[in-house]
Design a protein that fits this description.
Blueprint lengths: L6 E8 L7 H17 L4 E3 L16 E2 L2 E2 L1 H12 L7 H13 L2 E9 L6 E8 L5 E5 L21 E4 L2 E5 L8 H9 L2 E8 L4 H14 L2 E6 L1 E3 L10 H5 L4 E10 L10 E2 L3 E8 L2 H5 L22
Parallel strand pairs: 1-2, 2-5, 9-10, 10-11
Antiparallel strand pairs: 1-15, 3-4, 5-6, 6-7, 8-9, 11-13, 12-13, 13-14
Length: 305
């Protein structure tokens, strides 16, 4: 492992999107990036689908074998407020990262340029303007009614002064071989944009931090049912949600599985953590999953990039 810059000031933005409104959502994101950078953040992480929000609880009128026209109208609104990976909204995020000289991880609904398929995506952006896109390999459960399986942009990693960083979105982290694909690329910071406030998830993130001996960045949304816009098909579904539809629980876990930040529930916050990157190589003294603890003569992973 190359020499790592020892200190990384990281910020997780746990906030509510402006649901189904890409322009307002983008402006909110830019303000939050500015705030985090003013407080010294060098790496700023947003949750899954921050733009234009995660439509938790909505079915978009789907039942087995049929669709409702009202649900199609709601999906089209969501589609219209999703953005291109190389579109003007993403360029504004890239320009902001360059101007503030920060690294940025941003979760968004990606609209494919040549088809009408949406992807659950995460963009890594460097202070020099490099942008690496990752699409969620397999949307979970009913997410498959909204977003397609990734056909490209599987496991990009970005070189930074603190080592390599990469992301897996939400339940992708339950795919053991996907985790191994990132470990083989040598990541020191594992970013997990997600919408998972289940208590079991808090055990998962600690396990992965220990397994990969890397920092695990758990970036979750927090939003209320009152944050939803008016919809054609979802009023009854949204009314049945709890007041806080997603509770957050964002935090950072160190390579030994210990808390590197506070864990924040039920409120909006920018969570700061000062990472000691020397813990990454130190933690691998007795277990280095793709180094001295590997057995490539017995076990081998094949990844199609």
């Amino acid at each position: 492992m190359k020499d790592l810059k020892t200190n990384c000031r990281l910020a997780i933005v746990q906030a509510a999107p402006v649901m189904f409104n890409k322009d307002a959502c983008l402006q909110k994101a830019l303000r939050l990036i500015e705030e985090a950078a003013k407080n010294g953040a060098e790496l700023i992480v947003f949750p899954e689908l921050f733009l234009p929000g995660y439509p938790y609880g909505m079915t978009f009128g789907y039942t087995v074998g049929s669709r409702k026209e009202s649900g199609r109208e709601d999906w089209k609104v969501y589609y219209d407020n999703s953005i291109l990976a190389d579109g003007e909204e993403m360029q504004q995020l890239i320009d902001c990262a360059k101007r503030l000289s920060v690294y940025l991880s941003f979760g968004y609904s990606e609209r494919e340029e040549n088809t009408a398929t949406l992807y659950n995506s995460n963009m890594l952006i460097s202070p020099e303007g490099q942008a690496l896109n990752h699409r969620k390999l397999k949307p979970t459960g009913a997410e498959r009614l909204v977003w397609g399986d990734a056909q490209q942009d599987f496991f990009p990693v970005m070189d930074t002064p603190w080592g390599k960083i990469g992301s897996l979105i939400c339940w992708e982290s339950y795919m053991p071989l996907a985790r191994a694909a990132l470990y083989e690329k040598g990541i020191a910071i594992y970013i997990s944009p997600n919408t998972n406030d289940n208590p079991e998830w808090q055990h998962t993130i600690r396990h992965i931090a220990i397994e990969g001996h890397c920092y695990f960045v758990n970036a979750d949304l927090v939003f209320r049912k009152s944050d939803y816009p008016q919809t054609k098909s979802g009023a009854d579904e949204i009314s049945r949600l709890p007041d806080i539809a997603c509770r957050g629980g964002s935090c950072v876990i160190d390579p030994f599985g210990h808390d590197a930040s506070k864990t924040v529930w039920d409120e909006k916050a920018i969570i700061y953590a000062d990472l000691d990157m020397q813990k990454v190589p130190a933690s691998r003294m007795e277990f280095d999953s793709c180094g001295h603890y590997a057995r490539p003569d017995v076990l081998k992973l094949s990844v199609r990039e």
